[in-house]
Amino acid sequence: MRILVMNPNTTASMTASIRATATAVAAPGTEIIATEPLWGPESIEGHFEGYLSAAAVLDRLATLDTPFDALVMAGFGEPGREGAQELLDVPVLDITESAAQMAMMLGHSYGVVTTLDRAVPQISDRLLTAGLLQRCAGIRGTGLGVLELEEDAQRTERIIVETARELVREGAEVICLGCGGMAGLQEKVAAELGVPVVDGVAAAVKFAEAVVGLGLTTSTVRSFAAPRPKAIGGWPISGQANFSAETSGI
User: Fold this and answer.
1) For 91, which of 79, 105, 212, 224 is 20 to 30 Å away at the CA?
2) Can you give the pLDDT at residue 238?
């Protein structure tokens, strides 16, 4: 089984961190491929960058000449997953829904710790659309930008723990790490809090393995039917000539 994990931003170091987390939880026989778009924002902090990223991710998927059995989209609360479901004939999972679904299996309510406060409405909207918001005890920003997560590991961990502890006081029984850049911190945060902590990348990889193992994929009878054939000017933006295995991690 081969799972493609897509970092929605163009920061290669974050792709490497996401790859490491996905590889660590993958079952024997599961191959993890991780990559990022060839163009787009270095981090995603708002709707403008989110929609740019969605287009860049779809462009990357449309021009990627590498077979895979499932896609994990490693952006928390960001758009584009539905487009990927229409484009691909393999299962598509995103870390937002995967984290929340797994959290609800572990406790009555869950909380989400994310980056900047401006990300909170986006995540809330995503969970509402997915039907997962009802059991969310709260979504709280740490005040850390996406790229700041990598600057000082101890500071990042301390702030995430402090923020998550506030959510636990407010009734969260499980904590979800609300950014792909937080991948790999779940064990340290859980040890400090004494509650289950779900990393979305890890959760999505395990769900992807289950879906592929059961021989299932996205329904295409209605909502996620393949795009109708039509002319799209200038699409795709990136051609195969731009593909570089050395820089993409594939």
Assistant:
1) 105
2) 84
